[in-house]
Amino acid sequence: MDDQQALSTTTNDISTDPTLDPTTQRKHAAMIERLSNLHQSRVSNKSDPKDPSFESTKSFLSLFTNSKQAIESSLTKIQQIPDMSPNLDLKPDLEKISISITDLEKLVAENSYFLPPYEVRSSLKTISDLKQTLDSVSSKLKPRKKFSFKNKPAKKPETANIVTEDAYKNEEHQSSYKVKDSPGFRSIENEVLIKEFKGAEIGEYVLSDLTNCEVRLTGCFRTLFINRLKNCKIYVGPVLGSILIEEVEGCLFVLASHQIRIHHAKGTDFYLRCRSRPIIEQSSGVRFAPYCLCYDGIENDLKESNLYDDTGSWANVDDFQWLRAVQSPNWSILPESQRIDTVRI
C-alpha cells in the first residue's frame, strides 16, 4: 500500500468511527485531505530520483553513507599523522569535519519525516559516534593547562542579575558535553543570560547546569547542546543544525531548529519550529506548541536558516520509548488557552 492509499484508508476509517462525534470526524477528514495534498505536491515537485531530498530511503542511505565515509576518511588521515602535538595547525581541518557532521545531521533532519524510525535512530547513532571520534582527536591537540593555585570564588548572591557570556568566558566549568572549545553558559543560578550571534561563525554552543535562569540567544549558530537545566526559561533564535536536550525539568523552551532531540525531560513545555518531527526519549509530562519568539532581525535569521515557514512538525512528536499505535501518554499538545503570548527579547 502506498502513502496515498494509506491516507485514503485512514480517512475512511475515521469517517466511519462511531466513537468520534461529527465535528471531530470532519476535522480529521480535513487534516488527512491536507496531508494528502501535501504529499502529492512533494511527489510532483521531486521527480528527479538523484535529488538528495527525494523521498526514497535507498537514495537517502546512499548519500548518508557516502558523506559518512568521507568524514571517517578525513578523521583517519588526521589520526595517522605521527606525533600529533598542539603546535600542529589542524584546527581548520577539524572545523571542516565539524561542519560536515553538522551537514549530515541536517540531512537526517530534512528527510526524517519519511524515514523508518529504525533508520533515523541508526543515523543518529552514527552521527554520535562521529562526534565522539572528532572529540577524541581534538582532545589530543588541546594543550595542557599550566598548574596554578586559584582562590575559591565567592558565593554568588541569590538575586537575579543580567549578564553576558563575556563575563564567564575565562571561567572553567565542567560539562558533560565534550565539545572542543565550545562556548556557552555553565553552572549558573538565578540570572538572565544574554548572547547575540552576529558576525561570528559559531559552531556548538552549550547550556549546562543552569537553575532558575532565563537565557536569550539571538542570531544564528549551528548546534545547541542543553544539559541539566531546572526551572529555566530558554529563548533561542534559529539553529542551523540540531538541538540536543538532556535532563531538564520544569523548564520552558522556545526553539527553532532543523532537528530537535529531547532526552529525560519532565514537566517541560516546548514551543518549537522544526523541519523534522521532534524526538523524545524517556520523558514525561512534556507539552508542545508552535514557536512564538520575536526579536529585531528574526525574520531574516529564519529565512537564512530555512526555518521561515511553519511546517507543523512541532505537533508530530516521535516518542522512541512508545511503540504502540495509540497516542503516547508522555507528551501532549499544549492547549491554546494555556500557551504564552509571543515573547519579544
TrEMBL record:
One of its GO terms (molecular function) is tubulin binding. It comes from the Eukaryota. SMART domains: CARP. Residues 1-23 have a biased composition (Polar residues). GO terms for biological process: post-chaperonin tubulin folding pathway; tubulin complex assembly. It is found in: Cytoplasm. Pfam families: TBCC, TBCC_N. Residues 153-322 form the C-CAP/cofactor C-like domain. Keywords: Acetylation, Chaperone, Cytoplasm. One of its GO terms (cellular component) is cytoplasm. Residues 1-56 are annotated as: Disordered. PANTHER family: TUBULIN FOLDING COFACTOR C, TUBULIN-SPECIFIC CHAPERONE C. Supercomplex made of cofactors A to E. Cofactors A and D function by capturing and stabilizing tubulin in a quasi-native conformation. Cofactor E binds to the cofactor D-tubulin complex; interaction with cofactor C then causes the release of tubulin polypeptides that are committed to the native state. Belongs to the TBCC family. This is CARP motif-containing protein. It comes from Artemisia annua.
